[in-house]
Amino acid sequence: MTELAFTVAGSLAVLVGIGWLGLQIKPEPFPPRPQRTGQLDTVGMPDGLPEPVERHFRTIFGERVPEIETAVVRARADFKVKGLWTPMRFESYHAAGRAFVRDMQITWFRLPALRGSDSYIDDSGSLKISGLVNMSETGMRMDQGENLAMWGEAPFTTPSVVVLDPQVRWEPVDADSVRLIVPFGEREETLRVEFDPDTGLMSSMSGMRYQEQERTKTPWRAEYSRWETVHGIKVPHRNTAMWEDEGEPYIVLDLDGVEYNVDVSEEIP
User: Fold this and answer.
1) What is the pLDDT confidence band of residue 4, given thresholds at 50, 70 and 90?
2) Distance CA 253, CA 76 (A)
3) Secondary structure in 3-state letters for the chain
4) What is the pLDDT of residue 5?
5) Which of the listed residues 104, 133, 150, 160 has the most CB atoms within 10 Å of its CB?
6) Per-residue pLDDT at 82
7) pLDDT for res 14
């Protein structure tokens, strides 16, 4: 009996070790989009922006703002699922300030173990997961959460939307932070945006967001770093998001590539 118990325990340890090892191997990135970014039209920097906002956008754009209407983003990430860090890759499609769709895969030994998609289209948010687990979520809380996710990801998806969209407003707070007011259907949401005092670049965006189907909102925060130039625009290649009451990120995302003003009509109606 003792020998059998040791054999079973050893076998379980091997299986656990193999399972753990499969989650340490990062997936390959999604292949690049065949259609690539062309020449981007530009307009002048809008007047009346708070000083830290204007400083940031002059740093990432220069003197003129590119008109970005759509984007396709490829990234890989470490994503926490029920306390367990898992490797993920995704490709997302964006219509600036209006909608997004993201196709995701959580992988094991680079093979898809879970597939999922989340989206915000026509003021409605949704999340669908299939594979080892199947689930689907919609509703008012998902609408609000996905809307905030869309604006929180704007610095690396459609960065000009927050200065060119007439529905977006900036309100000064102090030398290194402002309030960002964005549309949410017929309503509005408010985010706090902070800027690095040394570089002038945006460092974080935070607000109150519904977490899944919780009845009350939770403080949520996105942080941006590793700014690198893509198609003449500085974008953050390392991005994290966290629920502030947990004190650590639930996702650490590294950008693989982005293409602007490409056709996303098949993904976003």
Assistant:
1) very low
2) 6
3) CHHHHHHHHHHHHHHHHHHHHHCCCCCCCCCCCCCCCCCCCEEECCCCCCHHHHHHHHHHHCCEEECCCEEEEEEEEEEEECCEEEEEEEEEEEECCCEEEEEEEEEECCEEEEEEEEEEECCEEEEEEEECCCEEECCHHHHHHHHHHHHHCHHHCCCCHHHHCCCCEEEEEECCEEEEEEEECCEEEEEEEEECCCCCCEEEEEEEECCCCCCCCEEEEEEEEEEEEECCEEEEEEEEEEECCCCCEEEEEEEEEEEECCCCCCCCC
4) 37
5) 150
6) 82
7) 38
The distance from CA 177 to its chain's CA centroid, rounded to whole angstroms, is 21
User: What is the C-alpha separation between 184 and 119, in angstroms, rounded?
Assistant: 14
Q: Tens digit of pLDDT for each residue in 219-230?
A: 999 999 999 999
* Strands 84-95 and 70-81, sheet pairing: antiparallel
Q: Which residue has the higher pLDDT, 185 or 135?
A: 185
* CATH topology for the 68-260 domain: outer membrane lipoprotein receptor (LolB), chain A (2.50.20)
CA distance 103 to 187: 28
What's the pLDDT at 21? 58
